[in-house]
Protein backbone atom coordinates (compact mmCIF):
# COMPACT_ATOMS: atom_id res chain seq x y z
CA UNK A 1 0.00 0.00 0.00
CA UNK A 2 1.27 3.48 -0.85
CA UNK A 3 -0.49 6.23 1.11
CA UNK A 4 -1.68 5.93 4.71
CA UNK A 5 -4.64 8.30 4.62
CA UNK A 6 -8.11 7.21 5.72
CA UNK A 7 -8.63 5.27 2.50
CA UNK A 8 -5.24 3.55 2.43
CA UNK A 9 -5.62 2.51 6.05
CA UNK A 10 -8.95 0.82 5.38
CA UNK A 11 -7.75 -0.97 2.23
CA UNK A 12 -4.72 -2.21 4.19
CA UNK A 13 -6.91 -3.40 7.06
CA UNK A 14 -9.26 -5.31 4.73
CA UNK A 15 -6.37 -6.95 2.87
CA UNK A 16 -4.75 -7.89 6.20
CA UNK A 17 -8.04 -9.27 7.48
CA UNK A 18 -8.21 -11.33 4.29
CA UNK A 19 -4.93 -13.02 5.24
CA UNK A 20 -2.34 -10.91 3.42
CA UNK A 21 0.85 -9.43 4.87
CA UNK A 22 0.52 -5.71 4.26
CA UNK A 23 3.16 -2.96 4.31
CA UNK A 24 1.68 0.55 4.43
CA UNK A 25 4.03 3.28 3.21
CA UNK A 26 3.27 6.85 4.31
CA UNK A 27 5.53 9.85 3.70
CA UNK A 28 3.87 12.36 6.00
CA UNK A 29 1.28 11.50 8.69
CA UNK A 30 -0.64 8.25 9.07
CA UNK A 31 -4.28 9.36 8.97
CA UNK A 32 -3.81 11.54 5.89
CA UNK A 33 -5.37 14.84 4.90
CA UNK A 34 -8.78 14.08 6.39
CA UNK A 35 -7.60 13.62 9.97
CA UNK A 36 -5.30 16.62 10.33
CA UNK A 37 -6.15 19.24 7.69
CA UNK A 38 -9.51 18.45 6.11
CA UNK A 39 -12.73 16.73 7.29
CA UNK A 40 -12.04 16.57 11.00
CA UNK A 41 -10.63 20.04 11.76
CA UNK A 42 -12.98 21.78 9.30
CA UNK A 43 -16.02 20.22 10.96
CA UNK A 44 -14.62 21.07 14.40
CA UNK A 45 -14.33 24.71 13.30
CA UNK A 46 -17.88 24.79 11.87
CA UNK A 47 -19.85 23.03 14.59
CA UNK A 48 -19.74 25.74 17.31
CA UNK A 49 -20.98 28.51 14.98
CA UNK A 50 -23.76 26.29 13.62
CA UNK A 51 -24.80 25.32 17.13
CA UNK A 52 -24.85 28.95 18.28
CA UNK A 53 -27.02 29.95 15.30
CA UNK A 54 -29.36 27.02 16.04
CA UNK A 55 -29.66 27.95 19.72
CA UNK A 56 -30.53 31.53 18.79
CA UNK A 57 -33.48 30.23 16.75
CA UNK A 58 -35.20 28.79 19.82
CA UNK A 59 -36.48 31.34 22.36
CA UNK A 60 -35.78 30.56 25.98
CA UNK A 61 -32.27 29.22 25.47
CA UNK A 62 -29.73 31.47 27.17
CA UNK A 63 -26.88 31.99 24.69
CA UNK A 64 -24.05 34.44 24.22
CA UNK A 65 -23.43 36.51 21.11
CA UNK A 66 -20.37 34.83 19.69
CA UNK A 67 -18.21 31.73 19.83
CA UNK A 68 -14.93 31.75 21.75
CA UNK A 69 -12.18 31.19 19.12
CA UNK A 70 -9.59 29.98 21.65
CA UNK A 71 -11.95 27.26 22.90
CA UNK A 72 -12.93 26.33 19.34
CA UNK A 73 -9.27 25.97 18.30
CA UNK A 74 -8.52 23.95 21.46
CA UNK A 75 -11.34 21.50 20.69
CA UNK A 76 -10.15 21.27 17.07
CA UNK A 77 -6.64 20.49 18.35
CA UNK A 78 -8.04 17.75 20.58
CA UNK A 79 -9.51 16.07 17.50
CA UNK A 80 -6.40 16.43 15.35
CA UNK A 81 -3.99 15.62 18.18
CA UNK A 82 -1.94 18.54 16.81
CA UNK A 83 -0.63 16.18 14.17
CA UNK A 84 0.51 13.37 16.47
CA UNK A 85 -0.10 10.19 14.44
CA UNK A 86 1.26 7.70 17.00
CA UNK A 87 -2.29 6.46 17.70
CA UNK A 88 -2.76 5.62 14.01
CA UNK A 89 0.58 3.78 13.90
CA UNK A 90 -0.42 1.75 16.96
CA UNK A 91 -3.78 0.96 15.38
CA UNK A 92 -2.10 -0.20 12.16
CA UNK A 93 0.27 -2.49 14.07
CA UNK A 94 -2.65 -3.77 16.12
CA UNK A 95 -4.53 -4.97 13.03
CA UNK A 96 -1.45 -6.65 11.56
CA UNK A 97 -0.27 -3.95 9.14
CA UNK A 98 3.43 -3.04 8.93
CA UNK A 99 3.61 0.77 8.85
CA UNK A 100 6.63 2.15 7.00
CA UNK A 101 7.47 5.83 7.09
CA UNK A 102 8.86 7.12 3.80
CA UNK A 103 8.05 8.13 0.25
CA UNK A 104 6.82 5.27 -1.92
CA UNK A 105 7.60 5.19 -5.63
CA UNK A 106 6.61 2.50 -8.11
CA UNK A 107 9.83 1.32 -9.73
CA UNK A 108 8.62 -1.79 -11.52
CA UNK A 109 5.94 -4.45 -11.63
CA UNK A 110 4.88 -5.18 -8.02
CA UNK A 111 7.86 -3.09 -6.86
CA UNK A 112 7.83 -0.05 -4.56
CA UNK A 113 11.02 1.77 -3.58
CA UNK A 114 10.92 3.68 -0.29
CA UNK A 115 12.88 6.94 -0.08
CA UNK A 116 14.99 5.79 -3.00
CA UNK A 117 16.47 2.99 -0.87
CA UNK A 118 14.62 -0.06 0.40
CA UNK A 119 12.80 -2.02 -2.27
CA UNK A 120 9.53 -3.71 -1.34
CA UNK A 121 8.40 -6.46 -3.67
CA UNK A 122 4.75 -7.42 -3.40
CA UNK A 123 3.86 -11.06 -3.92
CA UNK A 124 0.29 -10.13 -4.83
CA UNK A 125 -0.52 -6.48 -5.44
CA UNK A 126 0.29 -2.83 -4.93
CA UNK A 127 -2.59 -0.57 -3.94
CA UNK A 128 -2.17 3.19 -4.38
CA UNK A 129 -4.07 5.58 -2.09
CA UNK A 130 -1.98 8.74 -2.33
CA UNK A 131 -4.94 11.14 -2.21
CA UNK A 132 -5.01 14.58 -3.76
CA UNK A 133 -3.25 17.94 -3.59
CA UNK A 134 -4.61 21.49 -4.05
CA UNK A 135 -4.97 22.88 -7.54
CA UNK A 136 -3.62 26.43 -7.57
CA UNK A 137 -4.69 28.82 -10.35
CA UNK A 138 -2.09 30.98 -12.05
CA UNK A 139 -2.93 34.48 -10.90
CA UNK A 140 -0.34 37.24 -11.21
CA UNK A 141 1.25 37.94 -7.81
CA UNK A 142 -0.37 34.98 -6.02
CA UNK A 143 2.97 33.33 -5.27
CA UNK A 144 4.28 36.54 -3.66
CA UNK A 145 1.65 36.75 -0.90
CA UNK A 146 1.91 33.28 0.76
CA UNK A 147 -1.76 32.46 0.30
CA UNK A 148 -3.52 29.99 2.58
CA UNK A 149 -4.57 26.62 1.25
CA UNK A 150 -7.07 24.42 3.08
CA UNK A 151 -4.24 23.19 5.36
CA UNK A 152 -3.44 26.68 6.64
CA UNK A 153 -7.15 27.47 7.09
CA UNK A 154 -8.02 24.32 9.01
CA UNK A 155 -4.92 24.51 11.23
CA UNK A 156 -5.06 28.29 11.87
CA UNK A 157 -4.08 29.33 15.39
CA UNK A 158 -5.66 32.80 15.17
CA UNK A 159 -8.58 34.42 13.39
CA UNK A 160 -7.45 36.88 10.72
CA UNK A 161 -9.13 40.30 10.86
CA UNK A 162 -9.98 40.19 7.14
CA UNK A 163 -10.04 36.96 5.13
CA UNK A 164 -10.47 36.65 1.37
CA UNK A 165 -11.67 33.24 0.12
CA UNK A 166 -11.33 32.37 -3.57
CA UNK A 167 -13.58 29.58 -4.88
CA UNK A 168 -17.21 28.68 -4.35
CA UNK A 169 -16.79 24.94 -3.89
CA UNK A 170 -17.24 23.04 -0.65
CA UNK A 171 -13.98 24.19 0.95
CA UNK A 172 -14.70 27.81 0.03
CA UNK A 173 -18.19 27.98 1.53
CA UNK A 174 -17.37 25.90 4.62
CA UNK A 175 -14.29 27.93 5.51
CA UNK A 176 -16.00 31.25 4.74
CA UNK A 177 -18.77 30.25 7.15
CA UNK A 178 -16.38 28.99 9.83
CA UNK A 179 -14.17 32.08 9.87
CA UNK A 180 -17.13 34.46 9.75
CA UNK A 181 -18.60 32.84 12.86
CA UNK A 182 -15.13 32.95 14.47
CA UNK A 183 -15.18 36.73 14.01
CA UNK A 184 -13.31 37.45 10.76
CA UNK A 185 -14.52 39.88 8.10
CA UNK A 186 -14.85 37.43 5.22
CA UNK A 187 -14.99 38.12 1.48
CA UNK A 188 -15.94 35.11 -0.64
CA UNK A 189 -15.02 35.52 -4.30
CA UNK A 190 -16.81 33.17 -6.69
CA UNK A 191 -16.98 32.98 -10.46
CA UNK A 192 -20.65 32.06 -10.82
CA UNK A 193 -23.93 33.56 -9.65
CA UNK A 194 -23.98 31.15 -6.72
CA UNK A 195 -21.61 28.69 -5.00
CA UNK A 196 -21.75 24.87 -5.26
CA UNK A 197 -22.51 24.79 -9.00
CA UNK A 198 -22.85 21.00 -9.14
CA UNK A 199 -25.88 21.10 -6.80
CA UNK A 200 -29.42 22.33 -7.54
CA UNK A 201 -29.64 26.15 -7.72
CA UNK A 202 -31.78 26.30 -4.58
CA UNK A 203 -28.87 24.83 -2.60
CA UNK A 204 -26.38 27.48 -3.70
CA UNK A 205 -29.00 30.20 -3.15
CA UNK A 206 -29.70 29.02 0.41
CA UNK A 207 -26.00 28.76 1.23
CA UNK A 208 -25.31 32.25 -0.11
CA UNK A 209 -28.19 33.60 2.01
CA UNK A 210 -26.80 31.79 5.07
CA UNK A 211 -23.30 33.14 4.45
CA UNK A 212 -24.62 36.67 4.11
CA UNK A 213 -26.57 36.25 7.34
CA UNK A 214 -23.32 35.21 9.02
CA UNK A 215 -21.75 38.45 7.76
CA UNK A 216 -19.84 37.16 4.72
CA UNK A 217 -19.60 39.50 1.72
CA UNK A 218 -20.07 37.37 -1.39
CA UNK A 219 -18.59 38.68 -4.63
CA UNK A 220 -20.44 36.80 -7.38
CA UNK A 221 -19.49 36.67 -11.07
CA UNK A 222 -16.00 37.58 -9.95
CA UNK A 223 -12.46 36.27 -9.66
CA UNK A 224 -8.97 37.58 -9.09
CA UNK A 225 -7.07 39.48 -11.80
CA UNK A 226 -4.01 39.90 -9.59
CA UNK A 227 -2.77 39.93 -6.02
CA UNK A 228 -0.01 41.96 -4.41
CA UNK A 229 1.55 42.51 -1.02
CA UNK A 230 0.88 46.02 0.31
CA UNK A 231 1.45 47.78 3.60
CA UNK A 232 -0.93 46.22 6.09
CA UNK A 233 -2.07 43.24 4.03
CA UNK A 234 -2.62 41.66 0.65
CA UNK A 235 -4.37 43.62 -2.05
CA UNK A 236 -6.81 41.70 -4.22
CA UNK A 237 -7.77 43.09 -7.64
CA UNK A 238 -11.14 41.60 -8.40
CA UNK A 239 -12.43 40.98 -11.91
CA UNK A 240 -14.51 44.03 -12.78
CA UNK A 241 -12.12 46.49 -11.11
CA UNK A 242 -12.93 46.34 -7.37
CA UNK A 243 -10.03 46.20 -4.91
CA UNK A 244 -9.89 44.72 -1.44
CA UNK A 245 -7.24 44.52 1.25
CA UNK A 246 -7.22 41.39 3.40
CA UNK A 247 -4.91 39.90 6.02
CA UNK A 248 -5.08 36.37 4.60
CA UNK A 249 -6.24 34.90 1.30
CA UNK A 250 -7.52 31.31 1.19
CA UNK A 251 -7.30 29.72 -2.24
CA UNK A 252 -9.91 26.95 -2.48
CA UNK A 253 -10.12 26.26 -6.19
CA UNK A 254 -10.17 22.47 -6.19
CA UNK A 255 -7.81 19.51 -5.88
CA UNK A 256 -6.07 17.10 -8.26
CA UNK A 257 -4.93 13.50 -7.80
CA UNK A 258 -1.54 13.07 -6.07
CA UNK A 259 0.31 11.12 -8.76
CA UNK A 260 3.45 13.29 -8.97
CA UNK A 261 6.64 11.58 -7.83
CA UNK A 262 4.86 8.23 -7.72
CA UNK A 263 6.68 6.67 -10.66
CA UNK A 264 3.56 6.26 -12.79
CA UNK A 265 5.61 7.26 -15.84
CA UNK A 266 7.33 3.86 -15.61
CA UNK A 267 3.88 2.36 -16.34
CA UNK A 268 3.27 4.64 -19.31
CA UNK A 269 0.89 6.87 -17.33
CA UNK A 270 0.99 10.65 -16.91
CA UNK A 271 1.81 12.22 -13.53
CA UNK A 272 -0.86 14.63 -12.27
CA UNK A 273 -3.66 12.61 -13.87
CA UNK A 274 -5.98 10.28 -11.90
CA UNK A 275 -5.33 6.55 -11.74
CA UNK A 276 -8.50 5.45 -13.49
CA UNK A 277 -9.87 2.20 -12.10
CA UNK A 278 -12.52 -0.38 -12.84
CA UNK A 279 -15.11 -1.15 -10.16
CA UNK A 280 -12.82 -3.73 -8.49
CA UNK A 281 -10.21 -1.00 -8.06
CA UNK A 282 -7.82 -2.32 -10.75
CA UNK A 283 -5.91 0.47 -12.52
CA UNK A 284 -7.43 0.15 -15.97
CA UNK A 285 -4.34 1.01 -18.05
CA UNK A 286 -2.04 -1.52 -16.36
CA UNK A 287 -2.10 -5.21 -17.27
CA UNK A 288 -1.36 -8.11 -14.97
CA UNK A 289 -3.90 -7.59 -12.17
CA UNK A 290 -1.26 -6.25 -9.76
CA UNK A 291 -1.91 -2.49 -9.56
CA UNK A 292 -4.98 -1.16 -7.74
CA UNK A 293 -5.97 2.33 -6.60
CA UNK A 294 -8.56 3.77 -4.22
CA UNK A 295 -9.63 7.14 -2.86
CA UNK A 296 -8.99 10.66 -4.14
CA UNK A 297 -6.15 9.52 -6.41
CA UNK A 298 -8.66 7.71 -8.65
CA UNK A 299 -10.78 10.84 -9.27
CA UNK A 300 -13.92 8.72 -8.73
CA UNK A 301 -15.48 10.33 -5.65
CA UNK A 302 -13.18 12.56 -3.62
CA UNK A 303 -14.82 12.03 -0.24
CA UNK A 304 -13.57 10.10 2.76
CA UNK A 305 -16.60 7.83 3.19
CA UNK A 306 -16.80 6.93 -0.51
CA UNK A 307 -13.05 6.32 -0.66
CA UNK A 308 -13.27 4.02 2.36
CA UNK A 309 -16.09 2.14 0.65
CA UNK A 310 -13.85 1.58 -2.38
CA UNK A 311 -11.10 0.56 0.05
CA UNK A 312 -13.29 -2.16 1.61
CA UNK A 313 -14.27 -3.42 -1.83
CA UNK A 314 -10.73 -3.38 -3.25
CA UNK A 315 -9.06 -4.72 -0.10
CA UNK A 316 -11.44 -7.68 -0.24
CA UNK A 317 -10.96 -8.14 -4.00
CA UNK A 318 -7.17 -8.22 -3.62
CA UNK A 319 -7.43 -10.70 -0.74
CA UNK A 320 -9.76 -12.91 -2.81
CA UNK A 321 -7.41 -12.80 -5.80
CA UNK A 322 -4.48 -13.75 -3.55
CA UNK A 323 -6.44 -16.69 -2.18
CA UNK A 324 -7.11 -17.93 -5.70
CA UNK A 325 -10.80 -17.14 -5.37
CA UNK A 326 -12.71 -15.43 -8.19
CA UNK A 327 -12.94 -11.64 -8.07
CA UNK A 328 -16.59 -10.83 -8.67
CA UNK A 329 -16.97 -7.96 -11.15
CA UNK A 330 -20.76 -8.01 -11.29
CA UNK A 331 -22.72 -4.97 -10.14
CA UNK A 332 -23.38 -4.70 -6.39
CA UNK A 333 -21.09 -7.64 -5.58
CA UNK A 334 -18.79 -7.45 -2.55
CA UNK A 335 -15.88 -6.74 -4.92
CA UNK A 336 -17.48 -3.93 -6.96
CA UNK A 337 -17.77 -0.27 -6.00
CA UNK A 338 -21.07 -0.01 -7.87
CA UNK A 339 -22.51 2.72 -5.62
CA UNK A 340 -19.98 5.18 -7.10
CA UNK A 341 -22.18 5.26 -10.23
CA UNK A 342 -25.50 5.73 -8.43
CA UNK A 343 -25.31 7.06 -4.92
CA UNK A 344 -22.45 9.24 -3.68
CA UNK A 345 -23.68 11.02 -0.56
CA UNK A 346 -22.21 14.37 0.44
CA UNK A 347 -22.94 16.88 3.15
CA UNK A 348 -21.86 20.52 3.02
CA UNK A 349 -21.64 21.54 6.67
CA UNK A 350 -22.63 25.19 6.30
CA UNK A 351 -25.64 26.80 7.97
CA UNK A 352 -27.97 25.78 6.35
CA UNK A 353 -26.51 22.36 5.59
CA UNK A 354 -26.79 20.80 2.15
CA UNK A 355 -27.14 17.02 1.93
CA UNK A 356 -27.24 15.35 -1.46
CA UNK A 357 -27.01 11.89 -2.99
CA UNK A 358 -27.40 10.58 -6.52
CA UNK A 359 -28.57 12.90 -9.26
CA UNK A 360 -28.92 16.63 -8.57
CA UNK A 361 -31.46 16.93 -11.38
CA UNK A 362 -32.97 15.02 -14.31
CA UNK A 363 -30.67 13.54 -16.96
CA UNK A 364 -31.45 14.38 -20.56
CA UNK A 365 -33.31 11.67 -22.41
CA UNK A 366 -34.07 9.72 -19.22
CA UNK A 367 -37.56 9.20 -17.74
CA UNK A 368 -36.77 11.43 -14.76
CA UNK A 369 -39.21 13.58 -12.83
CA UNK A 370 -38.19 16.16 -10.24
CA UNK A 371 -40.26 17.04 -7.17
CA UNK A 372 -39.23 20.18 -5.24
CA UNK A 373 -40.91 21.22 -2.00
CA UNK A 374 -40.23 23.42 1.01
CA UNK A 375 -39.36 21.63 4.23
CA UNK A 376 -42.36 22.85 6.19
CA UNK A 377 -43.59 20.13 8.52
CA UNK A 378 -44.43 19.98 12.20
CA UNK A 379 -40.99 18.57 12.96
CA UNK A 380 -39.12 21.39 11.23
CA UNK A 381 -41.24 24.15 12.78
CA UNK A 382 -40.56 22.74 16.26
CA UNK A 383 -36.88 22.28 15.44
CA UNK A 384 -36.25 26.00 14.87
CA UNK A 385 -38.37 29.14 14.62
CA UNK A 386 -38.60 30.30 11.03
CA UNK A 387 -37.15 27.01 9.77
CA UNK A 388 -36.43 27.44 6.07
CA UNK A 389 -35.50 24.39 4.06
CA UNK A 390 -35.98 22.78 0.70
CA UNK A 391 -36.10 19.19 -0.51
CA UNK A 392 -35.84 17.64 -3.95
CA UNK A 393 -36.21 14.11 -5.16
CA UNK A 394 -35.43 12.87 -8.66
CA UNK A 395 -37.53 9.86 -9.61
CA UNK A 396 -36.99 7.35 -12.40
CA UNK A 397 -40.65 7.18 -13.42
CA UNK A 398 -40.19 4.03 -15.51
CA UNK A 399 -38.75 1.98 -12.66
CA UNK A 400 -40.65 3.89 -9.95
CA UNK A 401 -37.52 4.40 -7.84
CA UNK A 402 -35.52 7.28 -6.47
CA UNK A 403 -32.32 8.26 -8.31
CA UNK A 404 -31.46 11.47 -6.50
CA UNK A 405 -32.24 13.55 -3.43
CA UNK A 406 -31.12 16.93 -2.11
CA UNK A 407 -32.03 18.51 1.22
CA UNK A 408 -31.16 22.03 2.37
CA UNK A 409 -31.80 23.33 5.85
CA UNK A 410 -30.60 23.26 9.44
CA UNK A 411 -29.56 19.73 10.51
CA UNK A 412 -30.66 17.99 7.29
CA UNK A 413 -27.44 15.94 7.23
CA UNK A 414 -29.04 13.19 9.28
CA UNK A 415 -31.82 12.83 6.66
CA UNK A 416 -29.34 11.84 4.02
CA UNK A 417 -28.78 8.19 4.80
CA UNK A 418 -32.47 7.41 4.37
CA UNK A 419 -32.20 8.70 0.80
CA UNK A 420 -29.00 6.74 0.19
CA UNK A 421 -30.71 3.55 1.37
CA UNK A 422 -33.71 4.20 -0.88
CA UNK A 423 -31.47 4.72 -3.93
CA UNK A 424 -29.05 1.84 -3.31
CA UNK A 425 -31.90 -0.49 -2.35
CA UNK A 426 -33.94 0.63 -5.40
CA UNK A 427 -36.91 0.75 -3.07
CA UNK A 428 -40.07 1.21 -5.16
CA UNK A 429 -41.88 4.43 -4.24
CA UNK A 430 -45.03 2.36 -3.76
CA UNK A 431 -43.19 0.55 -0.93
CA UNK A 432 -41.49 3.69 0.38
CA UNK A 433 -45.02 4.97 0.95
CA UNK A 434 -45.24 2.44 3.79
CA UNK A 435 -42.12 3.81 5.51
CA UNK A 436 -43.92 6.12 7.91
CA UNK A 437 -41.86 9.03 9.30
CA UNK A 438 -42.18 9.70 13.02
CA UNK A 439 -44.17 12.70 14.16
CA UNK A 440 -42.94 15.39 14.72
CA UNK A 441 -39.57 15.05 12.96
CA UNK A 442 -37.99 16.70 9.94
CA UNK A 443 -38.25 13.27 8.26
CA UNK A 444 -41.95 14.03 7.71
CA UNK A 445 -40.65 15.74 4.59
CA UNK A 446 -40.47 12.24 3.04
CA UNK A 447 -44.24 11.92 3.27
CA UNK A 448 -44.75 15.37 1.74
CA UNK A 449 -42.37 14.51 -1.12
CA UNK A 450 -44.25 11.32 -1.94
CA UNK A 451 -47.59 13.13 -1.72
CA UNK A 452 -46.28 15.85 -4.04
CA UNK A 453 -45.19 13.07 -6.43
CA UNK A 454 -48.76 11.86 -6.50
CA UNK A 455 -49.01 9.02 -3.99
C1 LIG B 1 -10.77 21.22 3.79
C2 LIG B 1 -11.32 19.88 3.39
C3 LIG B 1 -12.42 19.38 4.06
C4 LIG B 1 -12.94 18.13 3.71
N1 LIG B 1 -14.05 17.69 4.37
C5 LIG B 1 -14.56 16.48 4.06
C6 LIG B 1 -15.69 15.98 4.75
O1 LIG B 1 -16.25 16.63 5.63
N2 LIG B 1 -16.17 14.76 4.42
C7 LIG B 1 -15.58 14.02 3.43
O2 LIG B 1 -16.04 12.91 3.17
N3 LIG B 1 -14.50 14.46 2.74
C8 LIG B 1 -13.98 15.68 3.04
N4 LIG B 1 -12.88 16.13 2.37
C9 LIG B 1 -12.25 15.25 1.37
C10 LIG B 1 -11.33 14.23 2.09
O3 LIG B 1 -10.36 14.91 2.84
C11 LIG B 1 -10.66 13.31 1.08
O4 LIG B 1 -11.63 12.74 0.23
C12 LIG B 1 -9.91 12.20 1.81
O5 LIG B 1 -8.90 12.71 2.63
C13 LIG B 1 -9.31 11.23 0.80
O6 LIG B 1 -8.61 10.22 1.46
P1 LIG B 1 -7.37 9.50 0.77
O7 LIG B 1 -6.86 8.51 1.77
O8 LIG B 1 -7.72 9.08 -0.59
O9 LIG B 1 -6.29 10.66 0.60
P2 LIG B 1 -5.50 11.53 1.69
O10 LIG B 1 -6.28 11.79 2.89
O11 LIG B 1 -4.96 12.70 0.91
O12 LIG B 1 -4.29 10.59 2.11
C14 LIG B 1 -3.27 10.23 1.21
C15 LIG B 1 -2.03 9.89 1.99
O13 LIG B 1 -1.03 9.43 1.11
C16 LIG B 1 0.22 9.97 1.48
N5 LIG B 1 1.08 9.92 0.30
C17 LIG B 1 0.89 10.56 -0.88
N6 LIG B 1 1.85 10.21 -1.77
C18 LIG B 1 2.65 9.32 -1.13
C19 LIG B 1 3.80 8.59 -1.53
N7 LIG B 1 4.28 8.65 -2.77
N8 LIG B 1 4.39 7.79 -0.60
C20 LIG B 1 3.89 7.67 0.66
N9 LIG B 1 2.79 8.34 1.07
C21 LIG B 1 2.18 9.14 0.18
C22 LIG B 1 -0.11 11.36 1.98
O14 LIG B 1 0.90 11.86 2.83
C23 LIG B 1 -1.43 11.10 2.70
O15 LIG B 1 -1.22 10.80 4.06
C24 LIG B 1 -12.34 17.38 2.67
C25 LIG B 1 -11.23 17.89 1.98
C26 LIG B 1 -10.72 19.13 2.34
C27 LIG B 1 -9.52 19.65 1.60
N1 LIG C 1 -18.12 18.45 3.42
C1 LIG C 1 -17.44 17.78 2.50
O1 LIG C 1 -17.78 16.67 2.10
C2 LIG C 1 -16.21 18.39 1.90
C3 LIG C 1 -15.68 19.54 2.45
C4 LIG C 1 -14.59 20.12 1.85
C5 LIG C 1 -14.01 19.52 0.73
N2 LIG C 1 -14.52 18.38 0.24
C6 LIG C 1 -13.96 17.78 -0.98
O2 LIG C 1 -12.66 18.27 -1.21
C7 LIG C 1 -12.48 18.53 -2.59
C8 LIG C 1 -11.90 19.89 -2.80
O3 LIG C 1 -12.84 20.92 -2.49
P1 LIG C 1 -12.75 22.32 -3.18
O4 LIG C 1 -13.85 23.17 -2.67
O5 LIG C 1 -11.36 22.83 -3.12
O6 LIG C 1 -12.98 21.96 -4.71
P2 LIG C 1 -14.28 22.01 -5.64
O7 LIG C 1 -13.85 21.42 -6.93
O8 LIG C 1 -15.46 21.47 -4.94
O9 LIG C 1 -14.56 23.57 -5.82
C9 LIG C 1 -13.63 24.45 -6.37
C10 LIG C 1 -14.39 25.66 -6.91
O10 LIG C 1 -13.44 26.67 -7.26
C11 LIG C 1 -13.85 27.25 -8.47
N3 LIG C 1 -12.67 27.82 -9.11
C12 LIG C 1 -11.66 27.16 -9.73
N4 LIG C 1 -10.74 28.04 -10.17
C13 LIG C 1 -11.17 29.28 -9.82
C14 LIG C 1 -10.65 30.58 -9.99
N5 LIG C 1 -9.48 30.81 -10.59
N6 LIG C 1 -11.37 31.62 -9.52
C15 LIG C 1 -12.56 31.42 -8.89
N7 LIG C 1 -13.09 30.21 -8.68
C16 LIG C 1 -12.39 29.15 -9.16
C17 LIG C 1 -14.49 26.12 -9.24
O11 LIG C 1 -15.38 26.61 -10.20
C18 LIG C 1 -15.20 25.34 -8.14
O12 LIG C 1 -16.51 25.79 -7.95
C19 LIG C 1 -13.83 18.34 -3.25
O13 LIG C 1 -13.81 17.15 -3.94
C20 LIG C 1 -14.81 18.28 -2.13
O14 LIG C 1 -15.87 17.39 -2.39
C21 LIG C 1 -15.62 17.80 0.79
TrEMBL record:
<dbReference type="Pfam" id="PF02852">
    <property type="entry name" value="Pyr_redox_dim"/>
</dbReference>
<comment type="similarity">
    <text>Belongs to the class-I pyridine nucleotide-disulfide oxidoreductase family.</text>
</comment>
<dbReference type="Pfam" id="PF07992">
    <property type="entry name" value="Pyr_redox_2"/>
</dbReference>
<feature type="domain" description="FAD/NAD(P)-binding">
    <location>
        <begin position="2"/>
        <end position="306"/>
    </location>
</feature>
<keyword id="KW-0274">FAD</keyword>
<protein>
    <submittedName>
        <fullName>Dihydrolipoamide dehydrogenase</fullName>
    </submittedName>
</protein>
<dbReference type="InterPro" id="IPR016156">
    <property type="entry name" value="FAD/NAD-linked_Rdtase_dimer_sf"/>
</dbReference>
<dbReference type="InterPro" id="IPR023753">
    <property type="entry name" value="FAD/NAD-binding_dom"/>
</dbReference>
<keyword id="KW-0285">Flavoprotein</keyword>
<dbReference type="InterPro" id="IPR036188">
    <property type="entry name" value="FAD/NAD-bd_sf"/>
</dbReference>
<dbReference type="InterPro" id="IPR004099">
    <property type="entry name" value="Pyr_nucl-diS_OxRdtase_dimer"/>
</dbReference>
<dbReference type="InterPro" id="IPR050151">
    <property type="entry name" value="Class-I_Pyr_Nuc-Dis_Oxidored"/>
</dbReference>
<keyword id="KW-0520">NAD</keyword>
<dbReference type="InterPro" id="IPR001100">
    <property type="entry name" value="Pyr_nuc-diS_OxRdtase"/>
</dbReference>
<feature type="domain" description="Pyridine nucleotide-disulphide oxidoreductase dimerisation">
    <location>
        <begin position="344"/>
        <end position="446"/>
    </location>
</feature>
